[in-house]
Specification:
By secondary structure, this protein is mostly helical. The chain is built from 18 helices and nine strands. It has a single domain, classed as Glycosyltransferase, CATH 1.50.10. The strands form four sheets. Strands 1-2-3 form a three-stranded antiparallel β-sheet. Strands 4-5 form a two-stranded antiparallel sheet. Bound molecules: 2-acetamido-2-deoxy-beta-D-glucopyranose (NAG). It catalyses: Endohydrolysis of (1->4)-beta-D-glucosidic linkages in cellulose, lichenin and cereal beta-D-glucans.
C-alpha cells in the first residue's frame, strides 16, 4: 500500500515538474485583454432585442416572440452554446458563476465591471420573466430537436420556439433551485448599484426556492425527452436545493436557510437512485449539473465571516476535493494531458478546467485568510500552490500549450477558426441580408472556409487528452463554445489580472 502510494507520489512529482516547465517556458499573458474578451463573448449569445450598446455588431435581434404563443413574454436570455435553444438550467448556472465572479473579483475588473454587470442583468431580466407566474417556472424555450436539425442563424430561426415549464404537478427542483441561486447571487451583485432591482431579485429568489423545495422532483421526469439527453439532471436535485439555500443564506443571513443546508447536506454523501444505493464521491464534482464541491467551497468561506463551521464537514470536504485535483496528491482523481491540462470525463472538457480553476483561486483566498494549508496525505499544499495550479490551467487555455494555440477566439495569434456555432459560421445579416433556411446553412456548416464572424472571447471545448486539436466545425465536443465554460473564467481572469498588474 505504502509502496503504491510512493509510486503514485513519484508520478505526481514528475507531472508537477512537467506542468511547471510548461508554465515557465511561456510568455506571460495579457489577462486584462482576455478578461474583456471573455465577457464580450456573452453578447454573441444574446437572444432577444439587442440594445444600442451592443458591441458585437454582427449579431442582430432574434427570437422576439418567445413565449407569445402562450401569452407570456419570454424574450431575452442567452443561447447556451452553438445552437439557438434557451436551456435555463445551464443558463442559470452560468449566471450564478458570473455573479460569484463579480462578488469575489469585481473590484479587480475596473473598466470591465460595467460590462460584467450587463452580462448578469441580461440573464436576470430574463429569469424574472421566466418566473413571473407563481407556481410555474419556465425552464426552456425552443424545440431542441427542431433546432438541432437545422443550421440557421438565430436571426432567421423558423423552428418551433416551444416554451417548456415545470409546475406543482410536474416539478423541476434542479432547474428551479439553480434559478433561485442565480437570482440570490445576482441580488448581492446589484445591492450597492441598484437597490430596487436587487430587492426584486432577492424576493423572487426566495419565491422560486420555496417552489423548488415544496414541489420536489426532477425535470427529467416531468419533461423527459424535451430536456434529456440535452441537459439531463444526472446528479439529482438535492445539490441544487442546498446550493440555492446556501446562496439565499449568504444573501439574507436568515438562519432558516442555513439550517436547510445543515439538515440536507448529509443527503449528498449517500443516497438511492432508481433502487441503487450509493455512497460519497460527488464531493469532487462541480459544474452545471453537480454543485457539490461548489457548496463546500462557498460554505467554507461563509465560516470566515458569519458562522462557525469548524466542526462541520464543509471544510474537510473542500480539502478532500482539492486533493483530487493536485497532481502530487495521493488521492488525485482527475487526469492531466502531457501539456498539463486537467481532464475529467464528459464533453466540453474546458468547462472542467475553468470551473475548477475558479474554485481553486476562491479556496486559496479562503485558506490565506484562515492561515491554513490543505493536507493530502503527507503532501501539504499551500494556497500559493492552488493558485499556481489554476494559473497553469488559465495559461494553457490562453496558449501556453504544446500547440501554442489559444482556445479563446480572438485572443493571441493562433485560435480556433471553425468553431461549432451557427451564428459565427454563417454570414451575418450585414453580409447576407436574405434569409438562409434550415438546410441552406449546411453549405456553411460543411465548408472548409473559416467562420466569417469572430465570436470574440468564446472558449471552445478544447483539445483532446494528448493536447491535439482538430479545428473542425463538425467536432462539436471540442469546437463548441458554451456559456458555462466562459462564466467561471471571467472570475479567474479578473484574479490573475489583479496579480499581474
Ligand atoms: C435523468 O436522466 C439521466 C439519463 O437518463 C439519468 O442518468 C439520471 O439519473 C436522471 N436523473 C434523475 C434525477 O432522475
Amino acid at each position: 500500500m505504502s509502496a503504491l502510494h510512493k509510486m503514485v507520489g513519484l508520478v505526481g512529482a514528475i507531472m508537477v515538474a512537467m506542468v511547471i516547465t510548461v508554465v515557465s517556458s511561456s510568455s506571460t499573458h495579457d489577462y486584462g485583454d482576455a478578461l474583456t474578451k471573455s465577457i464580450l463573448f456573452f453578447e454573441g449569445q444574446r437572444s432577444g432585442k439587442l440594445p444600442s450598446s451592443q458591441r458585437m455588431t454582427w449579431r442582430k435581434d432574434s427570437a422576439l416572440h418567445d413565449g407569445f404563443e402562450i401569452g407570456v413574454d419570454l424574450v431575452g436570455g442567452y443561447y447556451d452554446a452553438g445552437d439557438n435553444v434557451k436551456f435555463n438550467f445551464p443558463m442559470a448556472f452560468s449566471t450564478t458563476m458570473l455573479a460569484w465572479s463579480v462578488l469575489e473579483f469585481g473590484k479587480d475588473m475596473s473598466s470591465d465591471l460595467p460590462h460584467a454587470l450587463d452580462t448578469i442583468r441580461w440573464a436576470t431580466d430574463y429569469f424574472l420573466k421566466a418566473t413571473s407566474i407563481p407556481g410555474f417556472v419556465f425552464v426552456q424555450v425552443g424545440d431542441p430537436y427542431g433546432d438541432h436539425n437545422c443550421w440557421e442563424r438565430p436571426e432567421d430561426m423558423d423552428t418551433p420556439r416551444t416554451p417548456f415549464a415545470v409546475n406543482k404537478q410536474f416539478p423541476g427542483s434542479e432547474v428551479s433551485a439553480e434559478i433561485a441561486a442565480a437570482l440570490a447571487a445576482s441580488s448581492m451583485v446589484f445591492r450597492q448599484i441598484d437597490r430596487g432591482y436587487s430587492a426584486r431579485l432577492l424576493k423572487r429568489a426566495k419565491m422560486v426556492f420555496d417552489f423548488a423545495d415544496k414541489y420536489q422532483g426532477s425535470y427529467n421526469d416531468s419533461l423527459g425527452p424535451w430536456v434529456c439527453p440535452f441537459y439531463c439532471d444526472f446528479s439529482g436535485y438535492e445539490d441544487e436545493l442546498i446550493w440555492g439555500a446556501a446562496w439565499l443564506f449568504k444573501a439574507t443571513k436568515q438562519i432558516n436557510y442555513w439550517n436547510y443546508v445543515l439538515q440536507n447536506m448529509p443527503k449528498l454523501d449517500s443516497g438511492n437512485t432508481n433502487g441503487v444505493s450509493w455512497v460519497g464521491g460527488s464531493f469532487a464534482e462541480f459544474g452545471w449539473d453537480s454543485k457539490h464541491a461548489g457548496i463546500n467551497v462557498l460554505v467554507s468561506k461563509l465560516s470566515m465571516s458569519t458562522i462557525s463551521t469548524e466542526s462541520l464537514p464543509f471544510i474537510s470536504n473542500a480539502d478532500r476535493f482539492i486533493c483530487t485535483l493536485l497532481p502530487e496528491s495521493p488521492t488525485l482523481s482527475v487526469s492531466y494531458s502531457p501539456g498539463g491540462l486537467l481532464f475529467k470525463p464528459g464533453g466540453s472538457n474546458l468547462q472542467h478546467a475553468t470551473t475548477l480553476s475558479f474554485l481553486l483561486v476562491v479556496y486559496a483566498r479562503y485558506l490565506n485568510q484562515a492561515k491554513r494549508a490543505v493536507h493530502c496525505g503527507d503532501v501539504v499544499a499551500s494556497p500559493a500552490r492552488l493558485v499556481q495550479l489554476a494559473k497553469g490551467q488559465a495559461d494553457y487555455i490562453l496558449g501556453s500549450n504544446p500547440l501554442s494555440m489559444s482556445y479563446m477566439v480572438g485572443y493571441g495569434e493562433k485560435f480556433p477558426q471553425n468553431i461549432h456555432h451557427r451564428g459565427s459560421s454563417l454570414p451575418s445579416l450585414d453580409q447576407h441580408p436574405e434569409p438562409i433556411d434550415c438546410k441552406g446553412g449546411n453549405d456553411y456548416l460543411y465548408s472548409e472556409n473559416p467562420n466569417p464572424n469572430l465570436l470574440i472571447g468564446a472558449i471552445v471545448g478544447g483539445p483532446d487528452i494528448k493536447d491535439a486539436y482538430v479545428d473542425s466545425r463538425e467536432d462539436f465536443v471540442h469546437s463548441e463554445p458554451t456559456t458555462y465554460i466562459n462564466a467561471p473564467f471571467v472570475g479567474v481572469l479578473a484574479y490573475f489580472k489583479s496579480q499581474s498588474s
